[in-house]
Amino acid sequence: MIKQFFLQILQYNIRKSLRIQESFLINRKVREFNIVTIQKQDCNNNDLQSFSSAHNFFHLVKNSSSQSTTCIYINKCLRFNQWIVETAESDICLIRILTCNADDKTQTLRLLNIYNSCSLFTTFTEKFLIISRLNELLKNDCKQLIIEDFNLHHSH
């Protein structure tokens, strides 16, 4: 269980650049965060696993698909018994984090990292499929934090 009263979480949209993702993750300031959520990453698993220095500091939660657009890096200062992967889909990663409040009572926080892909060929219905999936995942009693890039501002 996390015995601190806050988590430091950083979100970043990589814009499909493996070079940016790698340099970002090895930055000393980034390594101070407990959790780093990435959207629009466009890397295959071999590339992600090759960040040897980044993987010295972070555990990677990601769907194995090459089409995956989200991932979560969990700082290794959080032990394995402090977090659980609930789902790792192509556009959604969801982890459950176990924390302790000031009274030493266990609490659960669910962290969802979501990316809604959008292109010229995306239909209105397709744009909102991710929101429907989000509604399914939010049916839970614990505290939840959504980190997202829905791309709803695009007019195409």
Keywords:
156 residues; alpha/beta; Deoxyribonuclease I, Chain A; four-stranded mixed beta sheet; 5 helices
The CATH architecture term is: 4-Layer Sandwich
The string of secondary-structure elements, in order, is EHEHHEEEEEHHE
> Spans with pLDDT under 50 lasting ≥5 residues?
none
State the CATH superfamily name: Endonuclease/exonuclease/phosphatase
What structural class do you assign from the helix and strand content?
alpha/beta
* Strands in their spatial order, largest beta sheet: 1-2-4-3
CATH class: Alpha Beta
Q: What is Rg?
A: 16 Å
Average pLDDT works out at 76
The number of helical runs is 5
* Biggest sheet descriptor: 4 strands, mixed
Count of folded domains: 1
Please provide a written account of the structure.
By secondary structure, this protein is of the alpha/beta class. It has a single domain, classed as 4-Layer Sandwich (Deoxyribonuclease I, Chain A), CATH 3.60.10. The strands form two sheets. The protein has a four-stranded mixed beta sheet with strand order 1-2-4-3, with no helix packed on it. Strands 5-6-7-8 form a four-stranded mixed beta sheet, with no helix packed on it. A hairpin with a 5-residue loop joins strand 6 and strand 7. The chain is flat and about 50 Å long. The mean pLDDT is 76.
